[in-house]
Amino acid sequence: MSKEPYIHESSYIDNDVVIGEGTKIWHFCHIQSGARIGANCSLGQNVNIGNNVVVGNGVRIQNNVSVYEGVEIEDEVFLGPSCVFTNVTLPRAAFPVHGKYEHTRVCKGSSLGANCTVVCGHTIGRYAMVAAGAVVTKDVPDYTLVAGVPARVIGRVNEKGEIVERFNNI
Predict the structure, then answer these.
(1) Cα 94 from chain centroid?
(2) What is the mean pLDDT of each run of 10 residues along the chain (170 residues)?
(3) How far apart are CA 52 and CA 163, in angstroms?
(4) Residue 85: which of 130, 52, 44, 116 has the closest Cα?
(5) Are 68 and 86 in contact (CB under 8 A)?
(6) CA separation (Å) from 42 to 7, 26, 78, 80, 132?
C-alpha cells in the first residue's frame, strides 16, 4: 500500500526531485533540483533543501533549516530548529565558488540541537548529539555528546540519546 508524500500548497518543489512515501513537507519549504528525500521524513516550516542534497529515511528537520549542496543526511537524523550548515570554507562574494562545495556528512541516528552550526567538511558520527548552540569545527565521533563554542566532547550517549558517561572537562 503506497502512502503518497504530503506537500503543503505553499511549498515549492523544483524539477528532478524525488520525495519518498509518507514524507511530509510543511509550509514555505523549497526543495531544489536534484534533491532526494527518503521515506517517512518530516520537514518543518521554512526548510530549504539545496540542489543535489540527499536526505535519508525517517529524518526530522525542524523549522528554519537550510541543508545546502554538499551536505549529506543519513537515516533517522534529527535537525533541531534553526540549525545551520555551511558548504564553503572561504566564502567571498567577489570570488564565487559555485559547484565546489565541501562535503559534510550527518550519520545515522544523530541529533543536532537548536541553533547549532556545523562548519563544512566534517562528519557527525552515528548517534552523536550536538548540543543547542554548539559550533562544530571538527569531526564528531560516534555516540558522543558535544557542546560549546567550539564544540568539544563532553560525554557519551547511547542510541536513544541518553547520556551514559559524562566527562569532567566542562
Answers:
(1) 28
(2) 91 98 98 98 98 98 98 98 96 89 98 98 98 98 98 97 86
(3) 35
(4) 116
(5) yes
(6) 10, 8, 10, 12, 20
**Structure-block grid coordinates of residue 94:** 567577489
Other CB atoms closer than 10 Å to residue 63's CB: what's the count? 17
SS3 content of the chain, % helix, strand, coil (to 5): 0, 35, 65
Among candidate residues 11, 45, 130, the one with its CA nearest the CA of residue 79 = 130
Q: What is the pTM of this model?
A: 0.96
Write the CB contacts of 6 (distance below 8 Å, at least 6 apart in sequence). 23, 24, 25
CA angle centred on 114, ends 89 and 90, rounded to 5°: 5
Question: Per-residue b/e over 141-162, b at no fewer than 16 CB within 10 Å?
Answer: ebbbbbbeeebbbbbbbeeeee
Give burial (CB, 10 Å; 0-12/13-18/19+) of 24: middle
